[in-house]
């Protein structure tokens, strides 16, 4: 995408970025308790599960674990649970592709996300056109200069423990995004919540919920190459296991207006997952040793000196195996006068980084303030939604209703 750029002071950007790097000790910061963490009762979500045994192959090891009530929900929509593990989930017919917020279902198929299947997943990209990005230049700031993405230090669990990859199946095949472990205000120290993009869980207008959604924290923890991972075991590529989403929530604006290029839902392109381990019983936060608070104050871009975006870019020149980050001073991006302004930073990360958290330092603590949503076809910048009251309502409902599962 071609656009007019206004040069910025290199020294100013460097100072801000350097300060953010020093403060963004994601693991250390995340391990402490949050200021607004409160003790709370368990959620109202059902905890009973049922196991259905089917075939193996690409559908996994043949065991499907269902939260209570899911089998009945599938049956109401004409979906045979017994066929699900045999590959019935591949039926994306309009009558089988559930779309409404209340209709989310994601039965766990044990063994489905094997190392090779993870490595073959394609990036879930949202690219805006030059026309889209120039829709409201009276509000948008000039496009930022590109910021070269920098590889995160390894092992990831010591440098960016809350960051990981989100895998899912779509009508186009297996796909991948990025995500972040976030704190649960009603279950301090024992969160099972993950923040990502709406387009990583739901196709938006005219589509429905994706399937087989799973989160893998600290994916490829040692940052090994494709050659080194040729015969990698599950423990090497997913050291903290696979965590399946037993519930997901995204904005009503994304469901109604999201599209392949972001669309009218881009400014609301965020989602929260509640996950459960494929193996084990500890919470996600206890397992990875960290989680981040979410900043819902939606500060204007002019109030923020620096933001950092983390993720696993998968489109060339990246291959999705390593974690990268970009640090920059944010500007404003407006796609329409009727939509909230989005944050925009210079960054060369490509598709696959979608859903990855954007972090800033608030009172000496690192908090998630946005997530990667859209970018141009020339991969020079990224944009993410401001997280205000609508996003906080989704988060608090997830914590209240599903956090105690």
From TrEMBL:
UniProt xrefs under PROSITE patterns: PROKAR_LIPOPROTEIN
Alphabetical list of InterPro entries matching this protein: Glutamyl_endopeptidase, Peptidase_S1_PA, Peptidase_S1_PA_chymotrypsin
Keywords: Signal
Domain of life: Bacteria
Signal peptide: 1-30
PANTHER family: PEPTIDASE S1 DOMAIN-CONTAINING PROTEIN, SERINE PROTEASE
Protein name per UniProt: Secreted protein
């Amino acid at each position: 995408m071609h656009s007019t750029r206004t040069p910025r002071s290199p020294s100013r950007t460097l100072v801000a970025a350097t300060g953010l790097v020093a403060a963004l000790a994601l693991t250390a910061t995340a391990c402490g308790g949050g200021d607004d963490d409160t003790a709370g009762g368990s959620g109202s979500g059902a905890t009973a599960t049922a196991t259905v045994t089917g075939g193996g192959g690409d559908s996994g090891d043949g065991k499907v674990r269902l939260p209570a009530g899911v089998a009945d929900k599938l049956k109401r929509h004409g979906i045979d649970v017994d066929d699900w593990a045999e590959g019935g989930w591949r039926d994306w017919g309009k009558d089988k592709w559930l779309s409404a917020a209340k209709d989310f279902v994601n039965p766990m198929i044990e063994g489905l996300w094997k190392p090779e299947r993870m490595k073959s997943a394609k990036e879930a990209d949202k690219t805006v056109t030059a026309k889209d990005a120039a829709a409201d230049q009276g509000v948008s700031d000039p496009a930022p200069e590109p910021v070269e993405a920098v590889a995160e230090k390894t092992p990831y669990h010591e440098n960016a423990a809350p960051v990981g990859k989100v895998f899912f199946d779509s009508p186009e095949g297996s796909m991948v995004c990025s995500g972040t472990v976030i704190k649960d205000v009603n279950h301090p120290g024992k969160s099972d919540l993950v923040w990502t993009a709406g387009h990583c869980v739901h196709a938006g207008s005219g589509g429905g919920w994706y399937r087989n959604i799973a989160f893998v924290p600290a994916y490829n923890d040692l940052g090994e190459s494709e050659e080194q991972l040729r015969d990698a075991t599950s423990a090497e590529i997913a050291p903290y296991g696979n965590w399946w989403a037993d519930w997901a929530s995204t904005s009503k604006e994304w469901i109604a207006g999201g599209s392949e290029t972001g669309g009218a839902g881009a400014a609301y392109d965020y989602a929260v997952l509640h996950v459960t381990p494929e193996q084990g019983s500890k919470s996600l936060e206890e397992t990875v040793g960290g989680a981040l608070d979410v900043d819902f104050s939606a500060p204007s871009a002019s109030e923020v000196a620096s933001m950092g975006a983390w993720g696993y870019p998968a489109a060339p020149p990246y291959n999705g195996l390593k974690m990268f980050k970009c640090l920059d001073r944010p500007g404003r991006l407006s796609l329409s006068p009727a939509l909230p302004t989005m944050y925009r930073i210079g960054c060369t990360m490509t598709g696959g980084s979608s859903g990855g958290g954007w972090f800033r330092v608030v009172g000496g603590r690192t908090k998630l303030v946005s997530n990667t949503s859209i970018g141009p076809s020339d991969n020079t910048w990224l944009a993410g939604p401001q997280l205000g009251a609508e996003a906080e309502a989704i988060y608090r409902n997830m914590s209240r209703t599903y956090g105690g599962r």
